[in-house]
Amino acid sequence: MNYKKMTIILSLILAMEIGAHPSLIIENITLIDAENPVRLNQTVLIEDGKIQSIIDSTQSFEEQNNHTIIDGSGKFLIPGLWDAHVHLTFIPEIDHETYFNLFLKNGITSIRDTGAVIEKLQPSLNYIKENPNKSPRLFYAGPLIDGRDRVYKGKEPGFPELSIGIDENSNIENVVNGLMDNGVTFLKSYEMLSKDTYLELLNIAKENNLRVTGIYLLVLILRKPLRLVLVVCNMSEIWILLAHSMPQNY
To answer: In terms of Cα–Cα distance, which of 137, 141, 183 is closest to 163?
Structure first.
């Protein structure tokens, strides 16, 4: 395991300790990760906010003078969790600082914002840049890339402005370049795109090594016979996933 890249969460208090004291030793902790069996009674050395070494608690590090020591007895240390579907600007009444505190309190250290207008997301980006120890890592797509008749255009209750609209007459390459200039790490397509526009978007994204995630296009769903309908309940939302047979060259 690459311990230097392992992100950790013990509790919000520990997160605050790491920010205030980047050199820590956590003793007698139980480690759980995705690569190893449960490891009991471990000592973890953290320097500059990153895990440098892990040893059995029966052993000790030679130099401990400049380290804050935390007794982890009865506690667990795990890699930071992910929330892979977030819309930080969906509810404007909730500010980004409140969101970030909730994520960290629940052990979530990395998030993916899958649809937000850059201008409205910018305060969150600024806060993360200014407060890296008080916020999760953020990967973001920028706005939903939808058709001209877009869904989230901010005109109806429950559908805030999260998107931009494009079609065959749009300069899609310029759209993608503009999003890349704003730091996006992937793209999010949405359901009202036409087939031709969607395929062009995929080609341009591939040329720029960008992944595209998104809602399935209505135009493809309606033109092909359904093979499977799977309903997944997630909190208060019901997602209907539609799978069908489609030739590779469609």
So the answer is: 141
